[in-house]
Model the fold of this input.
Amino acid sequence: MGVILTLHHVRPPRLDRFQPNRLLEIRPSFLDDVVRWLRRSCIDLVSLDEMHRRLTGQSAARRFVCITIDDGYRDTLQWAYPILRQHRVPFAVYVPTSFPDRLGELWWLALEAVVARNDRVRLLIEGREQAFQCAGVAEKRHVFEQLYGWLRSLGTEEQLRSAVRDLATRYRVDLAAFCEELCMSWGELASLAANPLVTIGAHTVNHVMLAKVPEKAARSEMEMSRLVIEASLGRRPDHLSYPVGDPTSAGPREFRIASELGFLTAVTTRPGMIFPEHRDHLTALPRISLNGEHQQLRYVRVLLAGAATAMWNGFRRVNAA
Ligand SMILES: [Zn+2]
Done:
């Protein structure tokens, strides 16, 4: 039936050679190219509400693309919004409320900063102090990958956060400063939300990997984020995006809770296209990421044609287990 696209940062490229989070950002001109191409193709650009209508009601003949942007970075307002507004494209922004509240921990950026600014990084892994040499760019990439993989492998969100807090304290990286520097304020979000093209969706309070916290905490993260957005922007979000969104951070338990809380849709980062069968899995919808490492239209054409994700999913249409 269509595709939900995932974007994070949209901004002009930086020159630094060490950019381990680069896959999460695309150039404004690439977004413009993609939107122009979609407008030329026989594809409807629709809001999450319209996608929900198509999934639950009569399905339309034409395929759709739904654009979603995670995290509420300021570059959404500065770079993505002017392009999407110009082409009259509806889009959704999923906001973790601790980011505009300036209490969020963008831990993947803190890790990047620690590795970027130091030639050697020491930290406690399983109770043992370990040292990593990272003077050159190649070493930095390698060490970032190792540490990122280790953090993601930890069993609980609390272990991950405390390891990153230790690193940030030890190497004087101001974890709180990333919110102020990179994320929209409530005022900026309100100016965006005022445009009917824009849907504000929930993305938890603290951007936690929900599957790695107890059920009560997972439920409260989803529910509280919706209440805080309603209190701040005057509208209760009907749509949710699971932070990180892969199977280690959102699974059947989270899909059930989102549905119990009454979210109309919830999206993962599991790659895939939307099929009619997804009407029975509205809180476990797959998306396709516009990846910063592959900013060429031909990749997008291949992804939207569905063959790549069909292979990824072993030709199962629904992957919600
Ligand atoms: Zn996110």
The two ends are 21 Å apart (CA to CA). The chain is about 40% helix and 20% strand. Residues 46 and 66 are 5 Å apart (CA to CA).
